[in-house]
Amino acid sequence: LACSHHLCAFPVNHNELCVWNTATAQPLYLSGHHYSISALSFGNKIHPLLVCSASHERVIVWNLDECTQKVQEGFTPRGIVIGTLLGMVLHIRFSPDDQQVAVCAGNQIYVLSAKNEAMLAELDGHLAPVTAAEFCAWEKSMLISVSEDRTFKARKVWDYSTSQLIYQSGIITAFPLLSLLIDEENKQIITGCAEGQLWIFSLISDHNYRCIAHIDLKKEQEKFCNKLVLLTFLGEGQNNSKLCKKDNTRPEGSVETSLPILLIEHCDFFVCFHNEENTYSSLNTSYFWIGTSTGLLIINLANFELEAFLSYRDYSDLSIRIARSCALTRKAANQKVLCLITSMFEDMIAVLEVNLAALVRTQHSDFLPCGNEKSLSVIARYRIIKYFFSMLDYGFVYLAVKCSTVKDKPLVFHNKIKSSGYAAAPRMTMFSPNTNLKKKEVSKWKTSCKCKNKEYPLESYPPIKYEKEISVTCKPTPIFCIQYSGDGELLACGLADKTVLIFNSNLTDVHNVFSGHDGAVDSVGWSHDKKWLVSASEDRTLRVWSVCSKEPALILGKENFHKTVRFAQFYFIDTFILLCCGAEFRLLSFHLDTTKDDLKRYRQRSVCKLVQKFPMTSTMEITSLSAVNEFYSYIVLTAGSNRALEVFDLNAGCSAAVIQEAHVRSVHQICQNKGSSFSTQQPEAYNLFMTTAAGDGIKLWDLRTLR
């Protein structure tokens, strides 16, 4: 796709080029290709306005003024063939003076003359298909390109007059780079990848192409949505002023696993506000469009924040919900920008006319007070007593929100000091999570987690050879289950000889040995704080062990279960214990106490109580279970012997969905990405997908669509 001023170019019938004039609604059809057109680009000059089209067998430059005249005279328009048999072309771009054309075909970049069939340079060095290339306007003979190469940054700077590679940088993501833009005003380049990440590099000579900023579009969308929802909610509590609302400001792309950046283009922001005294930004700020598969975004280059968001799903008249490719006009005409998108799943093209001023004004009206403005206050006028979001389903759900007004009061000094708390009532709540961590504690926890948890190197291949092998027993004994602790330092193993072994992660030493079961141990699970270990056995018992002691802290005997206990684990950050027994799984609350009474030393002081039983629909036995203990999640996934999958919502206390005949055979393993509580992503975004394994293969499921 390609857009320029009031013209849109796109292929018709695969090998025919259509240039549509939106002002006159007149199409111009150009024929000359025998194979499907794979890349298009308009020239930078208006007179004459050139368009270049590329296919597998040839690259053609068309002079639109001459082609229009030929059609009016009744002749068939012809273009200039500047290249032949270059291969699969993914991207083409004109030089600033429209004298050269950069053609990205496979791993190669060909610099061709725009006037005749002459190859000026052939650039290689990429290890994967080149996805975008741009000419540098202020420095002659410089070309910048990005590629799908995952080993390098795939950002290469060329001197195409001598075909010499000037600079090559390393990649910081495992996902291919798809788009590229050169910011001439600030002398920067902006590149985007298939996972919604943006990087900005400086092209100033003494900066050595250093990275200036890294933007996560998913986070920016969530931040933008949270700000709108929060301020809209607070506005409802005001009596004299109400904040404007808009239902379509929720970023639909924030719930997707990938957000490919299809296009990066300059945004003609201030042209649309030249007659208004807007308070949005400074006049010295640059803006640019981001075209993704789900919508359009406007990014402020001064603070790298999201200024506006347009989602395709919010418009019922638009039949395209997920875009495969995107094109935008650089300059606005009558405060409107043309956007051309194609559907991911259908042969469909849509032309959008975006009113930039209206889009920004409606979304930013939520930030501006309406009516009489109140003066600023040192003390916050509105205090959020409880404010909690949940990312279940497709968006934010209010669980409990309350707001109270705080009036201005004079500054006073108190002559009394609050008590140290010795006279306060004892805390009676046993399982409420501690959410009031200080910043220093959180930072220390993050630092310790980062030091212990080393990320898997993205540039490495999957492991195919083992580093060490040890024998756990003197004679051959099956190992039924293994489980790493959360920090990866300890490894627990459940054996057929009725014991549980704990090793160091490097398998150099046995940390502890737990014995006491009367049957093979078929499941083990670590607590979030790595202090406790739960084990279940074929003897229909469950035991909780302290890592520092060989005696069990809690024992649930055979009288509590009618069938073998399986898949025992801690749940909801060590608040509960989950386990399976037959065709149901159980939720248990517990309290662990390892102290001993001198008179009743054999009586355990730990307490465990059944909260609820959850039977699985129409099955004889649960064959696998998965739940997250690393962060607060209500979702529990089960698989049954009837080849079905069932999703339970423990917040509602019922079954949420059932997938019948998920596999040809019974599922023997089901899991979800449990992530980390201090990950860069939102924890709620982890368990949107699940993976199941059965005798017929492995499947990845989307919990939003259950497909």
Automatic annotation (TrEMBL):
Pfam families: WD40. Gene3D superfamilies: YVTN repeat-like/Quinoprotein amine dehydrogenase (2.130.10.10). WD repeats lie at residues 514-547. The keyword Metal-binding does not apply. PROSITE patterns: WD_REPEATS_2 (PS50082), WD_REPEATS_REGION (PS50294). The keyword Disulfide bond does not apply. It comes from the Eukaryota. Keywords: WD repeat. This is WDR27 protein. The lineage of its organism: Eukaryota, Metazoa, Chordata, Craniata, Vertebrata.
